[in-house]
Design brief:
This protein has about 425 residues and is of the alpha/beta class. It is built from 13 helices and 14 strands.
């Protein structure tokens, strides 16, 4: 099967979708698929090459940090059409799989869906997010353009259905991880990693792997740290996501200034490290994190960084947000706290930092949950089933998406996967 992937960004740009693609594409190739990717540029430059053997084309016309609708719509449409057609004619796909192209740009969707319709090629979407604004409502009017839609969580599925997407076309496929790349390491390896990051020496590391922003809970984390340091003076908050990200709306710089000002006002300079980490470095940070937090203030679509921490053996504390409670079982594989509640976040972190046996037991259960429900193979198999359903339905008769057995939850519950064992106090 030849698969043409399309997304706005790819590593070294860091984010959940980018990490997902860097995991899924090699897995599909290992199954025998020929995968090509059209993605956004780096620093506005057109480029082509390969990534782990996958043909890769980068174009400014998919760079959301630079691209804006309205800069001569007719001219933009023509340029986007030329770029996409050139890529698709080179890839000769049996199926096109776009990621988060149900938002941001009607121009791109029009070109992509038009080509697929004329060529008789299925068009598959993975929805990694949902929004609530005029553009979102406009893009939802094009919901029928997609032959199949993969939702990364039941939360996203619910929001898509509520916004007019047809239930028979939607399947939930949770994220999966390379559980060898993200796995607990020996104490010797962890000591070696710490040596590469001198700022972590002698500190109890609280790692916030999300994009540094207000929506991702950076200010909540800082407020919680002030309380945590009353019990654990060595606590250090490490905030990632200050570098290469998709910065839709160009808000990152202003938000980083605000976050740094809050750190200064709270007299926490020296106790908060805000910097960027590469996709390769992120795996190291989970190894030295005494606890990983994800206190999002908005409804998190999934929270891939949390899953990476769980697989790596770092105990987690998350907000009750979007899809995260689907895979973090409160009190068993992590703690789930109310959104926007720094005191609850601080209490849970202090509990994990001061009760190592409980933290270790919860981490072990979390690792087991990932191995049972969130491997690359499970994600790839679920995605493959969606592909097969779409290919079998090229005549336009919308057959229901086949169930993905490994995503089923006992008793019909869709929120938290059952995990055997309860940590004791």
């Amino acid at each position: 099967m030849r698969i043409a992937m399309v997304h706005w960004a790819f590593p070294p740009v860091i984010g959940g979708v980018e990490s997902h693609l860097a995991t899924l594409c090699p897995a599909l190739a290992a199954r025998g698929a020929e995968v090509s990717l059209l993605t956004g540029s780096i620093d506005g430059r057109q480029a082509s090459g390969t990534w782990e053997g996958m043909p890769l084309v980068r174009t400014p016309l998919l760079d959301l940090n630079r691209l804006r609708e309205g800069q001569g719509t007719g001219q933009l449409h023509a340029a986007v059409r030329r770029e996409i057609l050139q890529f698709l004619e080179s890839a000769r796909p049996d199926l096109v799989h776009a990621h988060n192209m149900h938002y941001f740009s009607a121009t791109h969707l029009n070109v992509l869906s038009g080509w697929c319709r004329e060529a008789g090629i299925p068009l598959v979407l993975t929805a990694h997010n949902v929004w609530d604004d005029g553009l979102w409502r406009h893009m939802c009017s094009r919901a029928q353009a997609w032959d199949r839609i993969i939702a990364v969580s039941h939360y996203i599925e619910h929001e898509l259905l509520r916004s007019g997407f047809a239930s028979e076309r939607v399947a939930v496929v949770h994220h999966g991880l390379d559980t060898e790349r993200f796995r607990p390491q020996s104490e010797r390896v962890r000591r070696l990693i710490r040596r590469r990051y001198p700022a972590l020496a002698g500190r109890r590391v609280i790692f916030h792997p999300a994009r540094s922003s207000v929506a991702k809970g950076s200010l909540v984390a800082i407020a919680a740290l002030k309380e945590i340091r009353g019990s654990i003076p060595a606590a250090l908050l490490v905030c990632a996501g200050a570098g290469a990200i998709v910065d839709w709306g160009n808000v990152q710089s202003a938000e980083l200034q605000e976050i740094r000002q809050v750190v200064r006002d709270a007299e926490l300079a020296g106790h908060v490290l805000i910097r960027s980490f590469t996709w390769e470095e992120m795996a190291d940070l989970y190894q030295v994190a005494d606890v990983t937090i994800y206190p999002s203030l908005y409804e998190e679509p999934f929270g891939l960084g949390v899953l990476e921490a769980m697989a790596s053996g770092s105990p987690v504390v998350v907000s009750r947000s979007g899809g995260m409670p689907e895979f973090v079982a409160d009190g068993r594989t992590g703690y789930v706290v109310p959104q926007g509640d720094p005191h609850a976040l601080a209490e849970s972190c202090i509990g994990l930092l001061t009760r190592p046996r409980r933290a270790a037991l919860m981490s072990g259960l979390a690792r087991r949950a990932v191995l049972n429900h969130h491997t690359v193979t499970r994600m790839m198999n679920g995605t493959w089933q969606v592909y097969q359903s779409a290919l079998a339905d090229q005549d336009g008769a919308n057959a229901p998406v086949a169930a993905v057995p490994e995503l089923a939850v006992a008793g019909g519950r869709r929120d938290v996967m059952a995990v055997q064992g309860e940590p004791s106090a």
